[in-house]
Amino acid sequence: MEVDSAFALVRHAIESGNAAGGYLIVGDVRGNAMELAQKILLTLFPDAREQIAARTHPDVIWLEPEGKARNIKVDSVREKLVEPMASTSFSGGWKVGVVVGADRMWAEAANAFLKTLEEPTPKTMYLLLTDSPEELLPTIISRTQRIELGTGDRERGFLLRQGYGGQAGNVDDYAIAEAVKARDIYGLVEIFAQMKEDAGPENLPQARKEFFRAIMALVREEMVDAKTPDEELYRKFRNVEAVESAYRQSEAHIGDEAVISQMIDRLA
Fold first, then answer.
1. Tens-place pLDDT, residues 103-147
2. Ordered DSSP codes for 207-259
3. pLDDT averaged over 10-residue windows placed end to end, the chain, 268 residues
4. CA distances from 93 to 20, 58, 125, 155, 232 (A)
5. ∠ CA(43), CA(85), CA(128), 5° rounding?
6. How far apart are CA 94 and CA 218, in angstroms?
7. Cβ(61)–Cβ(96) below 8 Å
8. Angle formed by the axes of helices 204-225 and 185-199, to 10°?
9. Could you tell me the sign of the dihedral formed by the alpha carbons of 44, 50, 56, 58, in that order?
10. Measured between alpha carbons, how far apart are the two ends of the chain, in Å?
11. Which residues contact 65 (CB under 8 A, 6 or more apart)?
12. Measuring CA to CA, which residue among 164, 160, 177, 157 is closest to residue 224?
């Protein structure tokens, strides 16, 4: 769906008093998804264009991934989203929580947010921006109205290279992509170890998935861009197999360095 078409539907819902308490906006979180979120915010706060652009409006709460692992932890959800959203609106009107990269919420953080989403107060809205909706809890998806703007491996590959358009976005994806292209085994081991440390024991499966997802996105981008003979394209399919194999091996009692080293050897 195009941004303008999606915006027309949301604006009509707002004007008719039938706006959803939460919208799951699936697309480029620094592109079309952010563009739609900005349009919605300007509809709710028409006289605050500069504050919306600068993210300084007191009734618009922003939450984004943090740290080297670029995730959203439970403390951040409670302190930077749930508690501020529970306070009275400064303007006496709407209060909006915008989660950029909602798929980056670890399980405990997602569950803390779910309680708020399940019991919305009047004139409260949540905008969840993501390019990986499959990473969200099904219960969060079921309690939001989904807007599919669309993104793909080719677009995601561009985001990997640019670090979400060069802004302070998904820095770990950018670092992972650079390390893969440089065949930097030890750099990847260090990134993976940091992601797991930041995630904590309860979120290790999701940290593993995030790490290998970033590598797979880069490999698939090479396949999309390939203008090569059949035998070269076959090699690129083997690269996908190499990443999938490494992901499976990382579940076993095999050291990260051994798994990543073997994967990089196959990619090379």
1. 888 888 888 898 888 887 889 999 999 988 888 888 899 899 999
2. HHHHHHHHHHHHHHHHHHH----HHHHHHHHHHHHHHHHHHHHTTSS--HHHH
3. 90 92 91 93 94 94 82 90 91 93 87 86 92 86 88 43 35 76 89 85 82 83 56 62 86 87 86
4. 16, 11, 11, 37, 59
5. 60
6. 40
7. yes
8. 140
9. negative
10. 39
11. 71, 72, 100, 101, 104, 169, 170
12. 157
Q: Which fold has domain 3-151?
A: Rossmann fold (3.40.50)
C-alpha distances (whole Å) from 265 to each of 42, 239, 250 are 50, 10, 16
pTM, full prediction: 0.63
What's the alpha-carbon Rg for the chain, to the nearest Å?
20
Measured distance CA(140)–CA(111) in Å, rounded? 9
Measured over the CA atoms of residue 90, residue 96, residue 98 and residue 103, the dihedral's sign is: positive
Domain ranges of the chain: 3-151, 156-267
Q: Which two tokens stand for residue 27?
A: 């697309």
How far apart (Å, rounded) are the C-alpha atoms in residues 205 and 217?
A: 18
| Of 251, 157, 240, residue with least CA distance to 204 | 251
